[in-house]
Amino acid sequence: MAINFSSIIRRSAHLILTCILLSGIFLPSAILAQKEGQITGRVSDAETKEYLPGANVVLKGTGYGDATDKVGNFKISHIPPGTYDMVVTYLGYEPETIKVTIGANGAAIKQNVSLTQSAVKMQEVQVTGLRQGQTKAMNIQKTSDKIVSVVSQEQMVRLPDLNIAEILQRISGISIVRDMGEGRYVQIRGTDARLTAITVNGEKVAAPDAGQRYVSMDVISASQAGSIEVVKALTADMDADAIGGSVNIKSKSAFDKEKAFFDITAGSGTSAILGKPLWQGSFTYGTKFGDENQFGIAITGNYDKWERETWDLESVYDTKTYTGGTAPFALVDLDMRNYNTTRTRYNIAANLEYQPSSENTFFIRGMFNLRDDNEFRRNLYVRPSKGTFTDASTATKSKIYNGLKDRLEEQNITAVSAGGVNKMENMILDYTLSYNYGKTQKADETDPTFVMINTMTIKTSMIDPSRPQYAITSTGAGLDPFDPANFKLDGVKFNNDNATDKGYTGSANLKYSFILGGYPSDLKLGGKINFREKVKLQDRWTYKWGGSTNLLMSQFVGDAASIYDGMYRIGNVIDGSKFRPFFQSNKDKATGMVGTLDHVNSEGASFTANENIYAYYLMDSWKVDDWLFIAGIRGEYTDLDNKSSQVKLDNKGAYLSTTPLEGKLNYNNILPSLHIRYKLSPMANLRLSYTSTLARPNFFDLVPYRIINDVNSTYAEGNPNLRPTTSSNFDFMAEYYFEEGGTISGGVFYKKLTDIIFNTTSKINDPGSIYDRYDYKQPVNGGNSTLFGIEFNWDYQLKFLPGFLDGLGFSVNYAYTNSTADVGNRLTRSVLPGQAANVANFVFSYEKYGFTGRFSINYNGKFIEEVGVDAAHDRVYKEHMQMDFSASQDIIKGLQVYLEIINLNKEPLIYYQGDETRPLQQEFYSWWMHAGLKFKL
Q1: In whole angstroms, how far apart are CA 448 and each of 373, 401, 403, 537, 818?
Q2: Which of 872, 790, 890 minimizes the C-alpha distance to 831?
Q3: pLDDT score recorded for residue 826
Q4: How far is the C-alpha of 772 from the C-alpha of 775, rounded, in Å?
Q5: Could you say which DSSP state residue 272 is in?
Q6: What is the DSSP string of 405-463?
Q7: In the predicted model, what is the mean pLDDT of residues 307-333?
Q8: 493 with 602: CB under 8 angstroms?
Q9: CA–CA separation, 215 and 207 (whole Å)
Q10: Which one, of 611, 612, 443, lies nearest residue 535 by Cα?
């Protein structure tokens, strides 16, 4: 990785000087403030000794107070001498009032607090598992300075979700994009995945996908997280590139609990279509050691493997002119795909901490996540587009192809960080150095395609748009599409792809507590430097058969395949275990497989990008009675260099030349923010915020690449002139928390985005070129966009019901968003790419007698994935509603049996072109399930 040290020194000096100048404006009055006393301590459960994060600790009748951190610690500073009633409250627990005295010398005192579960909770309804997790999450949300949603570890283990994306789909305003039925990308508040930040312990996660910024969340197992926080309105001390919101995955810590802990899960399952076993297992171990338990280590591991079959039906529509008329949306291609996918995930994380005192913590954390995706795609591709249309549904000289995609994709995400937190009398200093690495590798992908020797006349039918049909109307020998002897080798795609993402980050933050106008205030300033290198290398070849006679498919056939319960036959598919060794033994031989380098998809798609970001901020929080004000300003300077290649072709598609290119781009963003929280009552808050955020373009979109796909008739180019998207965000939220557990909240938000980025599609109109009528795609900046939304959340436990019914509970959340977006010359509503108008969740739960059960419904409204030349050509993700069920039952203390059933209603994944009568892609998975044992010590 090339590093410009002079630039680093210059930018670092600028960052440090700016922080000093800004702090110089505010610190003098703080330094002169009177030295006072302070109270520190830890809040825990009196019976279980579990630490209670988010507990509210206040000195009655004053503005002094604090909320406990994730391990139950609190600190109240600058307290004038005197005697106070310290009141500690926590949802579901009896309040505790303790007399504390600050002496005239202002000495610090330590006061730990143990809370007892409330009388309502002490009844038969258990306060473990799901409800305990909900209580923790709600307390953290209630006392947070920001608008945040929290998922605790106890909640995660009760969900039938394998990865982080699937957990996040349960949160209000969050939708996900799926792959092979599994959640992959996260979208917050109607924005696409690029506008969501993903961090681990506050540090950015590397994005293994080639050229992209957004993270494949299916790489990270759900078991890796101690908790997850989704911040929807950022403060100035957070990375600004999160227009939709920021997801922070927190590691498990040995200091999370008083005692050592050990959890293990082992299970298996099956899927409805393929019926092969699915495996899963995980463990977590944490303990403290040393003379005074000053050391702690937590280790988490996970393994899961599933092999499932997927049915996929893909259609292509285009305008076709024939004698006597024009068909604007003729069905020109029909691709019937049978996927057999084996996905294996390995995850391990460790957190080593050293706490020599309650004031100092040092840590080293590491996380390694690996996902192998072994895919065999067998398909029959019917292509009237290769022939001549005689009417709207009939084409002569059509072709049919039989293909195989045989590849193993390996993705990994690694995150390592080291740092510390040092608490002084009136200051807290924290600092972190981190390294993040992501990689995607596809080695020796071998994709043969056979074509029918004879052409034919094909007639298509759209009587049922969801199940388009075709028929061969020609007669004669050699026209059976299910006879392998009728197919000859058309070509072999041989690919080696490798993409890496490396990030080096250093950050430091200083918080100084003082009295401002008689009320406690915290001044915080800090800086962060991030060096990032994104590399994409592709080596792609096209091989043809060089033998004197046709190479027939009959030599390599395997089992027969079909989709949709036999409605669509694929026939005897290509057997990769037969074709791959034949290809390797005949590769690069004059009378065998003769290869040609695909320059466009090799040099043209490869690049190196070095991005350096220098960030600094200043913010102050001020507590005035029941009011909290947080004002801040953040600066981020971005410096980007990239290297790529321009590949030139003639109008017949023949390769001419490759020219190296270098690009530079830099820009500076100043981002103010203001947060206000008003405590209506001990159980109710009003929140108002204004924030400024940004979203940088995907790396590959900035590169002047050119990719031409003759199979799909697409011609794509990059755009080196893309600008980052910026956004001004307004949020208002009201929330109420029930003493016995539960919450109800609602709010509105508004975002004004500038320079939105979207992929636009148009038709090439050049009759003299081989690319005439190809779809031309390019990422571009639009004008301004607005996004308005409403969120509602209600979580409640029905403990007032008699008998066994008091174990019932429910959770419902709903988010509505509406947008306008300037995409070219088209200004329409609800057209912002990635924006789903409606997102909702409903969960019905029961917990009692050692049993926990959850039935959940997740609804994701439709959204535009890719903007077309007009609304009729947009690629739209159809609304998706999925039902899941999970349950567990205690057998003996610490041992549970569990059952999880996913996609009970067999919901497919569907994309369509402009209108639902033109489905582009229809994936069907049916349901799958897991069952097994969980042990907790």
Answers
A1: 19, 10, 6, 22, 45
A2: 872
A3: 53
A4: 9
A5: T
A6: EEEEEEEEEEEEEEEEEEE-SSEEEEEEEEEEEEEEEEEEEEEEEEEESS-EEEEEE-S
A7: 94
A8: no
A9: 5
A10: 611
pLDDT in tens, 116-163: 887 544 444 444 555 677 788 888 888 899 999 988 877 787 778 888
H helices of 519-604, in order, are 576-586
Determine the straight-line distance between the first and last CA of the chain, rounded to whole angstroms.
46
Is residue 170 pLDDT above 70, yes or no?
A: yes
What's phi and psi for 584, nearest 5 deg? -65, -40
Tell me what pLDDT residue 5 has.
44
Q: What is the pLDDT of residue 823?
A: 66
CB 530 within 8 A of CB 503: yes
Are 96 and 118 within 8 A, CB to CB?
Answer: no
Q: For residues 661 and 704, give the distance between their C-alpha atoms in angstroms, rounded to a whole number.
A: 8
798, exposed or middle or buried, with CB in 10 Å at 0-12, 13-18, 19+? middle
- Within its chain, how far is the Cα of 217 from the centroid? 5
Task: Give me the numbers of helices (H) and strands (E) for the chain, helices first please.
Answer: 6, 52
**Cβ pair 913, 895 in contact under 8 A:** no
Closest CA to 756 of 677, 694, 826: 694
Give residues with Cβ within 8 angstroms of 549, minimum separation 6: none
What global pTM score does this model have?
0.87
Length of the chain equals 937
Q: Which amino acid is at 167?
A: I
pLDDT digits (tens, 9 = 90+) for 621-669: 999 989 999 999 999 999 999 898 888 877 777 888 888 888 888 999 9
Q: What confidence tens digit (pLDDT) does each residue in 915-931 have?
A: 999 999 999 999 999 99
* Cα–Cα distance list, 870 to 528, 827, 863, 864 (Å): 43, 11, 15, 12
Q: What is the distance between the alpha carbons of residues 273 and 374, in angstroms, rounded to a whole number?
A: 18
State phi, psi for 603 to the nearest 5 degrees: -60, -40
Q: What is the 3-state secondary structure (H, E, C) of 480-530?
A: CCCCHHHEEEEEEEEEEEEEEEEEEEEEEEEEEEEEECCEEEEEEEEEEEE
The residue written with tokens 């369509």 in the block is 912
Identify the residue with better confidence: 135 or 411: 411
Task: Report residue 454 as tokens.
Answer: 């004879």
Measured between alpha carbons, how far is 867 from 874 in angstroms, rounded to an integer?
5
Distance CA 125, CA 806 (A): 7
Exposure class string for 338-353: b at 16+ Cβ within 10 A, else e: bbbbebbbbbbbbbbb
Residue labelled with tokens 């909640």: 155
d(CA 656, CA 662): 20
